[in-house]
Design goal:
The complex is a heterodimer.
Chain A: E1 5-9, H1 16-26, E2 33-38, H2 43-54, E3 57-64, E4 67-73
Parallel strand pairs in A: 1-2
Antiparallel strand pairs in A: 2-4, 3-4
Chain B: E1 3-4, E2 10-11, E3 15-20, H1 25-40, E4 44-49, H2 70-78, H3 93-105, H4 110-119, E5 123-127, H5 128-134, E6 145-149, H6 151-158, E7 163-166
Parallel strand pairs in B: 3-4, 3-7, 4-5, 5-6
Antiparallel strand pairs in B: 1-2
The chains are: A alpha+beta, B alpha/beta.
């Protein structure tokens, strides 16, 4: 997986990590992959749910201790 | 509205509407959390502000227009953009503590969420009846208000929306 960009959302609560993800993806081109790092526990389920609504492609969610790393491909 | 593909169907964006009736900080944050998330999910979001919800749209420095009646002025003096919270308000100590905690824990403030809502294209409608009763016009409200309308306009949007909330 080639990560194009990384977005640090640690310290942010819902809805900010999702809204920031959306704004970041708006500036990317289709096929590019965004890594989003967050520590809000809700992000684990929120990111795939948001991808289901927005149509962006959810790739993977990695857990490293308290950190969540989500990967989304811009459609 | 949507892109029409010949011989196919009309692709409409999904819609969500919120009636924001309450004028408390905590309820407003809940409403704007959902509004910004829905707008970030490619939904078309409308918030209809009525009764106490209009306080969220009031300018912080409120000018009392000469046209306002005495009782309208009294109401607008007592009911302002300084929002209380719905439990444990304690004469303003509650909101102060809540805002301090939100800052310290990194939670987005209502101001942040409202800024994002506008950036994401959330539409604000002010109830024209409530504005009439309280003597409010666009000069008393923040610039983000898109329309002043009534129940019919709200309902015509709500009937097409999958999610309609009353907060």
């Amino acid at each position: 997986m080639n990560v194009t960009k990384s977005l640090d959302c640690t310290g942010l609560f819902c809805p900010m990590p999702i809204v920031q993800t959306k704004l970041e993806l708006d500036g990317m081109t289709p096929g590019e992959v965004l890594e989003v790092i967050a520590d809000d526990a809700g992000f684990e389920k929120d990111l795939p749910a948001w991808c289901g609504m927005s149509g962006e492609k959810f790739l993977e969610m990695k857990k490293e201790g308290n950190l969540l790393k989500g990967y989304v491909m811009k459609k | 509205m949507g892109d029409q593909i010949p011989g196919c169907c009309v692709h409409m964006k999904e819609k969500m509407t919120i009636i924001l009736f309450s004028g408390e900080l905590d309820r407003a944050i809940a409403a704007f959390t959902l509004a910004t998330t829905a707008a970030a999910s490619n939904m078309e979001v409308t918030i209809f502000f009525t009764f106490w919800g209009l306080n969220i749209l009031k300018k912080e420095t409120f000018a009392f227009p000469p046209a306002q009646k005495l009782m309208q002025k009294m109401f607008n003096f007592m009911s302002t953009a300084r929002l209380p919270i719905s439990r444990l308000n304690m004469l303003g100590l509650g909101p102060w503590m809540m805002k301090k905690l939100m800052r310290e824990t990194g939670m987005a403030s209502l101001e942040d969420l409202m800024k994002l809502a506008k950036q994401l294209g959330v539409k604000y409608i002010a109830c024209s009846t409530s504005c009439g009763v309280l003597g409010l016009s666009s000069e008393n409200l923040i610039p983000g208000v898109d329309e002043f309308t009534g129940a019919s306009s709200y309902l015509s949007e709500a009937r097409d929306a999958k999610i309609n909330l009353f907060i």
